[in-house]
Design goal:
Length: about 180
């Protein structure tokens, strides 16, 4: 490959990567779907746990940490040749784990008479439906581009909009109700 061709290829792949990153950030399906799985490698995203996210309910905190850990592991796997297996493993884990996790959270909300329980449960139901669809897509067709993109997008969006926002509001209420560090 000539120097000019190599430089042009580098520039093209950098433009592609930036466009893809923007597409993922803006959740633009049309652009995101026009790039191959290769473009998803080295996406510099990480969702780190911090203590502000603690609910004060020990089993829920353990489950949230597990969800963060598994999603971060999936993002890390995007840098390897194992990304298809990683998406499959993640969906196998997630579609069962969220049932267990949501039930635990909903029990706490009911036990402590959380006033926004219904709207919180509605968000759980929406996410469950999205993940079940992805899981069905994966079990029927394997990990194709659509399953790959949507798994990362749906999970990332959920971590940002549900765990980091909706669950945090619930956590504040539960902390006031049961006191920090109380186990359920
Ligand atoms: Fe949660
Ligand atoms: Fe929740």
């Amino acid at each position: 490959m000539s120097v000019t061709t190599a430089a042009a290829t580098r520039e093209k792949s950098l433009c592609g990567f930036l466009a893809l990153l923007l597409a993922v950030c803006r959740f633009d399906d049309e652009i995101a779907m026009s790039y191959s799985m290769e473009n998803y490698k080295a996406i510099p995203m990480s969702f780190k746990w911090n203590d502000e996210l603690n609910t004060g309910i020990s089993n829920i905190d353990i489950q949230h940490k597990q969800l963060f850990t598994r999603f971060n592991a999936l993002l890390q796997a995007c840098n390897t040749a194992q990304e298809k297996d990683a998406v499959g493993n993640y969906l196998n884990f997630l579609h069962e784990y969220i049932i267990f996790h949501f039930e635990a959270e909903e029990r706490e909300m009911i036990n402590h008479k959380y006033p926004r329980c219904d709207e919180h449960k509605a968000e759980h139901e929406t996410f469950k439906k999205q993940i079940n669809q992805l899981y069905e897509g994966y079990t029927t067709h394997g990990v194709n581009m659509q399953v790959f993109v949507m798994t990362i997008r749906t999970s990332g969006e959920w971590l940002v909009n549900h765990i980091l926002k909706t669950d945090k509001v619930m956590a504040e209420y539960l902390r006031n109700e049961v006191g920090t560090g109380s186990g359920a």
